[in-house]
Amino acid sequence: MISPNIVAVIGASEGLDKFGGRIVHYLKKHGFPGKILPINSKATELQGLPCYPSIKDVGCIPDVVVIVVPAKAMLEQIELCASVGIKSAVLITGMLDEVDAGGDSLQNKVVRTAAAAGMRLLGPNCLGIVNAIDNVALTSSLAMEVPTLRPGGVGIVSQSGALMGTMMARCSDYGVGFSRCISVGNQADLELCDFFEYLIADEKTQAICLYIEGIKDRGRFFELARRAFAAGKPVLAVKAGRSVAGAAIGQSHTGSLAGSYDAFEAYCAANGVVVAQDPYVMILAADMLVRLPNAAGKPAGIAAIGSSGGSTANFADQLVGRSLRLPNVSDVTKQKLEEWMPAEDAHIPVDTGAFRGGTSRQGIISVLETMLDDDDVSSVVYAMTTSPRMTDYAAIVPEISRRTKKPILFTLLAGSMAQPVRKVLHEANYPFVDNLADAFTILELLHEVGNQKLEGLRALTTRPPGVSALPDPRSGQLTESEAKALVAAYGISTAGEVRIANEAGLSGLKQLALPAVVKGVSRNILHKSEANIVRVGLESESEVRSACEDVFRILRDKDPEGAEGVTIQEMVIGEAELFMGARFDPEYGPLVTVGFGGIFVEILRDVAIAAAPIDTATAKKMIMSLKLWPLLNGARGRNVADADSAAQAVSRLSWLAADMGSKLIEIDVNPLIVKKQGEGAVAVDAAAVIA
Amino acid sequence: MISPNIVAVIGASEGLDKFGGRIVHYLKKHGFPGKILPINSKATELQGLPCYPSIKDVGCIPDVVVIVVPAKAMLEQIELCASVGIKSAVLITGMLDEVDAGGDSLQNKVVRTAAAAGMRLLGPNCLGIVNAIDNVALTSSLAMEVPTLRPGGVGIVSQSGALMGTMMARCSDYGVGFSRCISVGNQADLELCDFFEYLIADEKTQAICLYIEGIKDRGRFFELARRAFAAGKPVLAVKAGRSVAGAAIGQSHTGSLAGSYDAFEAYCAANGVVVAQDPYVMILAADMLVRLPNAAGKPAGIAAIGSSGGSTANFADQLVGRSLRLPNVSDVTKQKLEEWMPAEDAHIPVDTGAFRGGTSRQGIISVLETMLDDDDVSSVVYAMTTSPRMTDYAAIVPEISRRTKKPILFTLLAGSMAQPVRKVLHEANYPFVDNLADAFTILELLHEVGNQKLEGLRALTTRPPGVSALPDPRSGQLTESEAKALVAAYGISTAGEVRIANEAGLSGLKQLALPAVVKGVSRNILHKSEANIVRVGLESESEVRSACEDVFRILRDKDPEGAEGVTIQEMVIGEAELFMGARFDPEYGPLVTVGFGGIFVEILRDVAIAAAPIDTATAKKMIMSLKLWPLLNGARGRNVADADSAAQAVSRLSWLAADMGSKLIEIDVNPLIVKKQGEGAVAVDAAAVIA
Q1: Beta-carbon contacts of residue B139 (< 8 Å; ≥ 6 apart)
Q2: Is the dihedral of CA A8, A9, A13, A14 positive or negative?
């Protein structure tokens, strides 16, 4: 289907205003080296090619047929193709998926007919395939109006044909070369993962871009992602639905803070897929990974050079708020810069206008090399304003980048006036962008790829020590004690408690750890504070007794059936309150979340989310990524808290979630009190729902 | 200088690789209708024009001379110009500002010589003037390589010539028309404000863009800004230095949280200037204000239409995290949309591919009109992918936008392939952008302009009631009591306190409000908690007595000289702790800040900053803009706090700052305890430094 020798176009036509006209035209225009067989019962010649009335008349078995007939004629054509032994068809036609009274659709009938004949289908309702390596433009997309198809290392699988075509067209302005680009349409038979798998194996594809609306088989998708990672092929993805995911905020339980889009992102992070927001920027980033030396190297500082003081000042200003930073260059670097400019100007970003004697080719070469040689510089952005010699200066960039083996992101600020510069870069097969915002977003994506490469993918196979058999709790809502028993089974410290079934039990109380907390127990009361059955800060046994009596009275009143007594717990005092939660996402699998407890979860949405299980180091990174992390880390004279113990608890909770799988609908530990460094973290309250 | 009839070019040359060659060439190329007089002692003809050996030989007095001779020849040329009575010169040459042993510079000498002759100077070290209204390209900037200068309503004053040229070149790709664009260089004589003032008065200029490195006379600058606002001319500015401002974080006092860039932003907000980050986006936004109908109308929801499901989904996803929102359209709008597409697709963003029977011109017209007619839609983004009829569809946009009097931001996603679409839009004099990120950033800027128009500029002239004479505190560091007396003089509630000079005073204590707080008083101890001279939560008179004795002992030990006794205060309990501060910024003037107290200031930098004074309504908006605002507003079952009283306190503090001016170096009220709604806000601790 992707590299055919013979292509038949059923529904071919003369006019380029028709899908079937453009497909034949684009095959010819882009130099398809094989045989094109137009099929149309009303013509004997089309666009200078012999035309056949039916697929039965072509006298051979095409490697692939492209079908663009109206929906109502589709089934007949598929039957004809099946009857002559065709094994591969691309269905451009849409509107096949309306369901009839019997619950069947034309699309289903087409798929069944094809399957019976061993014929595989792409589409329907797709824009086809562009294989720029072999000059196969098997599509009606206007993107093929580009003068030439530039072959290269970027492969695309897209669930939106229009976006794919648009991005291919746009990115060809930037000299991006493509390997194979596939629009999968309705995925009635072959789907995104089939082509994702193809691109991983395809030696011409060096970076893979995916535009995803929904994933059919998530297990397979992420297994392929790991395979791509192992093969050293970066995978970037844009997925629709981020705006819908925002709606999930405000759920009652913290575990539910992780919506479906969050789950997608968490599983991508765990399996080596980098998530982008803009499809066009995704493709430019993939192209940089293909064409720039070491674009996925170890991330460090971003150096910059510009042809005016204004552009370099603006560079530093626009960097604010990004996950990027300027480099801390060595003294050697500073000294070398001072060879070209006065000491007061010898800082990064470098303004070439500040060179002694003015901007010079030799100065630019030397400064670029100096910066790229610095250990804390992982890449350079060259921000080029209009300048009489901009073409000359641009011409030196590809060679230096290749020699120093570090990327220079060339940023052409001057619009169409810089067309001669673009030409030079095209000829050197060197990428560029048009504005700083894109350069920065691309660098952030490259850094993500670089970090994933550095750290590798998590492959956890051994449970943390001290975890025995898989727990098997009762189903439904668990009481606090049951939920805490569950986390305790995974080695998470929980606040010690004494359970008393009724007032009679009070008489046996002795040697209580004080201050204490008393809580009523009932399976029917989820929000204990709101039900007024929690008493904190009890300083003496007599206070504890009277609190218990009080809570027993309220429980009898509010929930005479479900009440299961009271618990007396030691009041845990710590440095900070975290919450942690886990849930089984039905689409992606188990997730673990951690954040600062109380009101800040809701207001700041200060939460980190990961695919479970995770190890302690990853959990620590999640905690350190929280905005309020300084609260644990000794900010403003506070004690440093035991973040390592908190991370261990989060890791153990993630193992609980991973082991229980879909049985664990959700679990929340809130608060997890984090004590002083070396003193641990304690789960003080918990709730869980079991399938 | 800006609209000359006769221009002399001193240092003119034949070659376009020279500044003096390009200036003559660009004047001719862009159809300068007046007389061009090249001056070069080595030629009699240049670029087909008669050339003169000296300015003395031209036989007339040019309206302006442009001088591009080497620095060492500059003074002589200025003297010559002065001698023949020239009143206006543009100095392109740089490197005049090196200071000699006597503390003087060539630049100073040039300025003195010109001033003595009544000659005004632009530059030196500038790129000159482009007056597109009158075809005066008085510049050596490569930006003049554009085929034609498009006259229009956008005026620019820039302290970076290279950025100005680059942005003019780039923005001409988008059909932006310019009025007068001035590169001010070193501002040795005429400066940014002179040309800012010119553009405000200039009837051809409808929107003003400023690229600022530093402001010479801030009073004049903001007075001009208010004049521009009153004249209905939006002013947008990019200012260098945002990245440097970040370094100010981490000061010991909260008043210092407002750095110099923050002060610039605060004063811009108060005086009708909208601050942008990217110069190119600033100019596109200014152009939209000129060319799009009602682009500065009342901000509401952003509707969108796209030519594919992929592009509309991506539109909604990329909107996340912006200060923009989708509209809540009326039922009438929904019904009208359903005429064109199935009910399940009749939502915003609209996918024209979902139209019954496919995308149609009539459908697009109707849907655009329907959306623009909705009261909650202030603008529409049209995201255009590659599509066979994209040029036809684009052609309908200008007319609909003008008819409905609302802006449609046309976003062309397809790159150079969409060149025919650009041509149609150029011919219709209608703007467009190339990607969603730019469309969104521009809309955010337009909304700021719209909001400023709606609300008008603050013009506060009356102090809040209850403020008597201007306070006149002692200079230096104030004690807590002195600082609280200062804010109390402006009607801000402070915690009541009893002051005791020494142990002897303890005997007279009675009827204390409990629980109480005891604090030691010393001018030398700034951080009381760290000095261990604060005792809180004292529940009885005896606890208060022993706390006082304790603090007296520590004070005697730590600061025998400066100790001034202890204060006993009622411990104020409230719903939340804010801090508020004010400082006099030596560059911009008085500033007031408010934020949530304690550790959150430092970690979250959750601070709002305004130019003082402000009224209570503005102060309330500042408080509501804080991330943690829900803490005051009843989040998670909390009591609603008295935000109105807090706002009143902030406004009164801002009046204190405004009245005291540069005498108030800084003042901090931390915490300001905000009680339950209706119960007020109380300043519990304060510190101040007076000049």
Answers
A1: B23, B26, B127, B128, B129, B130, B165, B183
A2: negative
pLDDT tens-place string over residues B427-462: 999 999 999 999 999 999 999 999 999 988 877 777
In this complex, which of B166, B316, B637 lies closest to A414 when CB atoms are compared?
B166
pTM surpassing 0.90?
A: yes
Q: Are residues A324 and A435 in the same domain?
A: yes
How many domains are contained in chain B? 5
* CA-based nearest distance B170→chain A, Å: 4
Residues B416 and B536 in one domain: no
Q: Which tokens is A93 given?
A: 């036609």
Task: Find chain A residues with C-beta within 8 A of B282's C-beta.
Answer: none
Q: Are residues B262 and B343 in the same domain?
A: no
Please check whether residues B181 and B213 belong to one and the same domain. yes
Q: What is the ipTM for the molecules in this complex?
A: 0.90
Distance from CA of B289 to the nearest CA of A (A): 21
Does position A248 have pLDDT exceeding 60, yes or no? Answer: no
Handedness of CA A354, A356, A358, A362 (dihedral sign): negative
Give tens-digit pLDDT for B554-608.
988 888 887 888 999 988 989 999 999 999 998 899 999 999 987 777 788 889 9
For residue B237, which residues of chain A lie inside 8 Å, CB to CB?
none
Q: Which of residues 244-273 of A touch B (CB under 8 A)?
A: 244, 246
Alpha-carbon span A3 to A134, nearest angstrom: 7
Nearest CB partner across the interface for B278, out of A162, A437, A635? A437
Q: How far is residue B207's CA from residue B200's CA, in Å, rounded to a whole number?
A: 9
**Is omega for the bond preceding A349 within 30 degrees of 0, making it cis?**
yes
SS3 B609: strand
pLDDT at A252 > cutoff 50: no
Per CB-CB distance under 8 Å, the chain A contacts of B163 are 308, 310-311, 314, 385
pLDDT in tens, A195-228: 999 999 999 999 999 999 999 999 999 999 999 9
- Asked if B145 has any chain A CB less than 8 Å from its own CB, the reply is yes
Judgement on whether residues A249 and A298 belong to the same structural domain of the protein: no
pLDDT of amino acid B255: 44
**Are B303 and B426 contained in the same domain?**
yes
Residues of chain B with Cβ-Cβ distance to A17 below 8 Å are 388
Selected residues 196-225 of chain A with any CB under 8 Å from a CB in chain B:
211, 213
Say whether both A285 and A298 belong to one domain: no
Residue A246 confidence (pLDDT) above 50: no
Same-domain pairing of B68 and B182: no
Going from the C-alpha of A90 to that of each of A10, A165, B309, the distances in angstroms are 10, 16, 21
Which pLDDT value is given to residue A496?
86
Q: Which of B73, B91, B126 is a domain's end point?
A: B126
In a domain, B380, yes or no: yes
A606 within a domain of the structure (yes/no): yes
Q: What is the pLDDT of residue B491?
A: 93
CB neighbour class for B207 (10 Å; exposed up to 12, middle 13-18, buried from 19)? buried
pLDDT(A600) > 90: no
Interface subset of A 386-405, CB within 8 angstroms of B: 386-388, 390
Q: Is residue B489 part of a domain?
A: no
Chains A and B form CB pairs within 8 A to the count of 210
A353 vs B contacts (CB less than 8 Å): 162
Q: Terminal CA-to-CA distance of chain B, rounded, Å? A: 45
Query: Final residue of a domain: which of B570, B585, B611?
Result: B570
Q: Give the CATH number, domain containing residue B623.
A: 3.30.470.20
Write out the residue range of the structural domain in which residue A347 sits.
Answer: 294-440
Beta-carbon separation of A417 and B353 below 8 A: no
CA separation for the pair A117, A119 (Å, rounded): 5
Could you say which of A173, A413, A636 has the minimum Cβ distance to residue B416? A173
Question: Distance, in angstroms, between A263 CA and closest chain B CA?
Answer: 16
Whether A311 sits inside 8 A of B163 (CB atoms) is: yes
Q: Does B319 touch chain A (CB under 8 A)?
A: yes
pLDDT at A258: 59
CA B36 centroid distance within chain? 40
CA distance A117 to chain B (A): 33
